[in-house]
Backbone:
């Protein structure tokens, strides 16, 4: 009897031991696989893809769209509507600075074969002017794979009624157009989508007839184009987008918990709308927005000396501290130029800066984002070499 009990105990111990070892081995293998997968994703997200322009369409004298087909990637990375590509045009080969600019993916496909962008030529804009002049069918350009946290995630939608309100100003329509693509491809019962889209003039409103047609075909999608400087031929809404206009067109209350707002447009328009929505009781979690850049530096009277590692230069009329660094041939990491990627982070060791835009990036004490600020005194900065 004792012997049987002992044998039973030993077998039990052996089994528990074996299972523990197998469990540990499986856990370690799984963690290693996840680590490798994460590292691979990280490596791929910073490795440029080479593209060929396979289509170009001029939408207005200032706006054009391009289709980019990959030359170096077998399968194009999938993306969520709202994300962007970082273009790396070959401008100024002898410069130490690789110019990079982000462009939102303007159309969404579940398995993309190409990427589509919509680009506005900015007055005196270095990259957008170059792209406007040089991106033609057959030209080659490198870009970093899709990224970004401004994403529309219908799979996270709660059950029951759900309303999505999109608000675009000018070229801010591009990420929202990709969101419309996904909505139209997955409309569920009780779901509605409304787009408010403003432009200065009728001919600067991109995709107008396409959006009108979609709204005509899909009763759950409503479209309100608004022109701020109308000519006599414009019969639609005029003025600016504000919360009063939005409230007057929605079938639900502004603060309704089941409504999500996605905005992309000029900084002042988004700041006013965000405040208006919060005042109406909209939870902050339901307000999503993307900045395409920061407002220009208007403080042109002051000149401040800047020290950065071994460099010294003066900040005067440049738009941001990042622009000033690049003008002085300082090779600083950057990507979004609007406070959302964190790549340009440096340490402010003395002096003061003024923030032009509030970033969501978590910064340590004394860290600043040069793409979002200008000096307001003499400053000393440090960045890792
Ligand atoms: C996430 C994201 C997505 C984006 N998506 C799109 C998109 O889909 N389509 C699109 O067209 N753009 C998009 N942009 C904007 C785009 O990345 C570029 O910022 C834009 O094309 C301008 O770049 P640029 O090099 O032509 O202009 P820059 O040379 O960088 O200048 C930008 C603007 O500032 C002005 N400026 C420059 N220097 C000064 C100065 N010293 N004082 C005052 N003003 C000055 C210029 O006149 C110009 O209007 C996006 C940006 C971000 C961050
Ligand atoms: S460049 Fe992205 S945060 Fe400054």
Residues:
């Amino acid at each position: 009897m004792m012997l049987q009990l002992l044998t039973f105990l030993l077998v039990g111990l052996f089994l528990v031991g074996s299972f523990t070892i197998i469990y540990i081995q499986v856990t370690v293998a799984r963690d290693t696989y996840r680590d490798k997968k994460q590292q691979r994703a990280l490596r791929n997200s910073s490795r440029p893809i080479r593209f060929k322009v396979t289509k170009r369409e001029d939408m207005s004298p200032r706006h054009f769209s391009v289709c980019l087909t990959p030359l170096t990637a077998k399968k194009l990375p999938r993306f969520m509507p709202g994300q962007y590509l970082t273009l790396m045009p070959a401008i100024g080969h002898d410069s130490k600075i690789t110019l990079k600019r982000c462009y939102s993916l303007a159309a969404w496909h579940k398995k993309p074969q190409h990427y589509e962008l919509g680009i506005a030529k900015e007055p005196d804009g270095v990259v957008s002017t170059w792209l406007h002049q040089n991106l033609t069918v057959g030209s080659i350009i490198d870009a970093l794979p899709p990224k970004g946290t401004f994403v529309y995630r219908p799979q996270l939608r709660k059950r029951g009624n759900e309303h999505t309100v999109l608000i675009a100003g000018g070229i801010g329509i591009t990420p929202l157009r990709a969101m419309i693509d996904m909505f139209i491809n997955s409309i569920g019962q009780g779901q509605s989508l409304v787009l408010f889209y403003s432009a200065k003039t009728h001919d600067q409103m991109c995709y107008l007839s396409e959006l009108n047609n979609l709204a005509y075909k899909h009763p759950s999608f409503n479209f309100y184009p608004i022109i701020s400087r109308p000519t006599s031929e414009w019969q639609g809404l005029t003025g600016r987008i504000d919360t009063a206009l939005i409230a007057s067109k929605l079938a639900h209350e502004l603060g309704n918990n089941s409504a999500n707002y996605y905005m992309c447009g000029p900084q002042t328009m988004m700041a006013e709308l965000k405040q208006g929505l919060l005042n109406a009781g909209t939870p902050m979690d339901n307000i999503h927005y993307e900045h395409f850049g920061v407002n220009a530096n208007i403080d042109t009277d002051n000149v401040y000396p800047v020290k950065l590692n071994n460099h010294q230069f003066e900040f005067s009329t440049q738009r941001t501290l990042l622009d000033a660094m690049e003008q002085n041939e300082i090779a600083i990491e950057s990507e979004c130029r609007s406070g959302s990627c964190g790549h340009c982070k440096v340490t402010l060791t003395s002096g003061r800066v003024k923030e032009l835009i509030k970033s969501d990036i978590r910064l340590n004490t004394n860290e600043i984002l040069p793409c979002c600020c200008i000096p307001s005194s003499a400053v000393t900065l440090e960045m890792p070499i």
Observations:
- Residues 2-45 form the longest helix (44 residues).
- Residues 84, 101-104, 118-120, 122-129, 148, 171, 174, 290, 292-293, 296-297, 317-319, 336-338 surround flavin-adenine dinucleotide (ligand 1) (CB under 6 Å).
